[in-house]
Amino acid sequence: MARVVVDVMLKPEILDPQGQAIVRKLPQLGFEGVAAVRQGKRFEVELDGPADEAALEQVRKIAETLLANTVIEDFEVRVL
Known about the structure:
Elements: E1 2-10, H1 17-25, E2 40-47, H2 53-67, E3 73-79
Antiparallel strand pairs: 1-2, 1-3
């Protein structure tokens, strides 16, 4: 059994209001030196078998079809 992680992030050109709200609040909480924050999503996918290239391609298709809105989000698939 293998575990694969899919990280989904807004594309750099897409405004991230949640990330902007966080970065504005940090100095009020005593955290200095943070220039930017981008929020995202993380999915962990457990596979029945090994994380070979065929299985990773299937996870990429799952991410592209269901987990990410590829118009405004990028995703990365990696093995844990």
